[in-house]
Write a structure and sequence with these properties.
The chain is α+β, with helices and mostly antiparallel strands and about 350 residues long. It folds into two domains: about 200 residues, no CATH class; about 100 residues. Helix content is about 35%, strand content about 20%. It is built from ten helices and twelve strands. Strand 7 and strand 8 form a beta hairpin.
C-alpha cells in the first residue's frame, strides 16, 4: 500500500505528547476496554502519571512523545495471569505528521522509537531470549546483570519488581543442560536415519539397465547417458554408504562422549548453574572466568503465579531504552530513570 507521509516542519516542541495509542484488542480477541482488564489499566495509569511529567523524557531532543498500551494473554493461561505492556517513547522526525504533536502510526511501527520507557506486567520473559527448547526444557539466556535500580535487581537494563524481590526464573543446572544436549543428539541421529533411509537402499542397476534399453529406440544418446549414470551410481554406492555410516558414527561417538562426561560428574557438579562455556559440550574451560560466561535460566516452577485471578499484578519489569546511534539521549534517559518512583510501582503488586 502506497501512502504519502507529510512531515512536520520546524523543531520539535518540548514535552510534545501525541494522543495515546492503544491496541484495540488483546491477542486473544477481547476488546481492550473489557471490564475485566480494569486492574491492568489501573496499573498502567500509575506509570503514565509518572511518565507524562518525567523531566528526562521531556528533555529528549527532537522527539514527539507517545504512550502506547496493549493487553495480552499469557502463553500459559492455565498457570499465569494476563500480561500487559505500556510504553512511553520518543519518536524522531521521520515519524511525525502535521504541525502539532501527532505521530504517523505506520511510520512509527516501521521505524520505531528513539528512546523511552516500557513497563511489562506479568511478563517473566521480558528480559530474556530463548536459547534451547524441547518438550522437557525451555532455557533462556539470562540478561546481563546491571547496577540495582532503587534497590531492585536489574537485568538487561530492566528493573525486575517481584514479590520480596524474587525473580521469576531460576538457573538451569549443568545436569539439566547435559540431558538436553543428549536428547538433542539423539534427535539428530534419528533425523539422520530418516533422511538417509532411502539413500541406503541398494540401487537396482538391473532395473535401470532395462529402462535404458527401452529408451534406446527413441533416443539412443539419452539411453547411453542414462546407462552410464546408473553404472557410475552403482560403482560408487559402497563408498557413499560407507560415508553416510561414518557421519552417523561421528554423531554416535559424540553422544557416547556426552554420556561419559555426564556420568563422570558428581551430584554437586551436575547441580551447579550451567554457564555457556567454550569447552566440549559447551562446558567452561578451566581458564574461563565465571563472570565472562552467560548463564542459562528457566522459569521458576514454584513462582506463586495466580492463574485464577487473571488480572492480578504479580510482576513488573521496568525497562529504559536508548538508541545506540543517538548518544545525545544518554543523559536525558539517565535523568528519566532517576525520576521514576519504583516504590509506587512496586505498591501495585498484590
Amino acid at each position: 500500500m502506497l501512502f504519502t507521509l507529510m512531515l512536520a516542519a520546524g523543531a520539535a516542541k518540548a514535552g510534545c505528547w501525541a494522543p495515546n495509542a492503544v491496541e484495540p484488542r488483546s491477542n486473544d480477541g477481547l476488546p481492550v476496554n473489557h471490564a475485566s482488564f480494569k486492574p491492568l489499566h489501573a496499573a498502567m495509569d500509575v506509570f503514565e502519571a509518572q511518565a507524562k511529567p518525567n523531566p528526562g523524557l521531556l528533555a529528549l531532543p527532537e522527539v514527539r512523545l507517545r504512550i502506547t498500551r496493549a493487553v495480552l494473554d499469557s502463553d500459559e493461561p492455565t498457570r499465569r495471569p494476563r500480561e500487559a505492556v505500556i510504553h512511553a517513547q520518543g519518536f524522531g522526525p521521520k515519524t511525525w505528521t502535521g504541525s502539532g504533536c501527532d505521530i504517523h502510526a505506520q511510520a512509527a511501527n516501521r521505524i520505531g522509537p528513539r528512546a523511552g520507557f516500557s513497563v511489562f506486567v506479568n511478563s517473566p520473559l521480558a528480559t530474556m531470549n530463548r536459547w534451547a527448547h524441547d518438550d522437557q526444557l525451555s532455557a533462556y539466556l539470562e540478561g546481563e546483570r546491571g547496577e540495582a535500580m532503587q534497590g531492585w535487581p536489574v537485568y538487561r537494563e530492566c528493573a525486575v519488581i517481584g514479590p520480596g524481590r524474587r525473580l521469576p526464573w531460576v538457573p538451569v543446572t549443568v545436569g539439566e543442560m547435559l540431558a538436553y544436549f543428549e536428547r538433542e543428539q539423539q534427535r539428530g541421529i534419528a533425523d539422520q536415519d530418516r533422511r538417509n533411509e532411502r539413500a541406503l537402499q541398494p540401487f537396482d542397476l538391473a532395473a535401470a539397465e532395462r529402462k535404458a534399453e527401452q529408451m534406446r529406440p527413441l533416443d539412443a544418446k539419452l539411453a547411453e547417458l542414462t546407462l552410464m549414470s546408473a553404472r557410475q551410481r552403482k560403482a560408487g554406492e559402497a563408498e557413499h554408504h560407507a560415508q553416510l555410516a561414518r557421519v552417523r558414527q561421528t554423531l554416535v561417538d559424540e553422544l557416547e562422549d556426552l554420556r561419559r562426561t555426564r556420568a563422570a560428574m558428581t551430584a554437586d557438579q551436575l547441580g551447579e548453574p550451567y554457564r555457556l562455556g567454550a569447552g566440549r559440550h559447551r562446558l567452561p574451560t578451566p581458564d574461563q572466568p565465571v563472570g565472562t560466561m552467560k548463564r542459562l535460566v528457566k522459569l521458576d516452577p514454584s513462582f506463586p503465579w495466580d492463574a485464577r485471578n487473571r488480572t492480578r499484578i504479580q510482576l513488573l519489569t521496568v525497562c529504559a531504552s536508548t538508541h545506540p546511534n543517538n548518544p545525545a539521549y544518554a543523559q536525558p534517559m539517565r535523568d528519566a530513570v532517576a525520576a521514576l518512583d519504583l516504590s509506587r510501582l512496586a505498591a501495585l503488586l498484590n
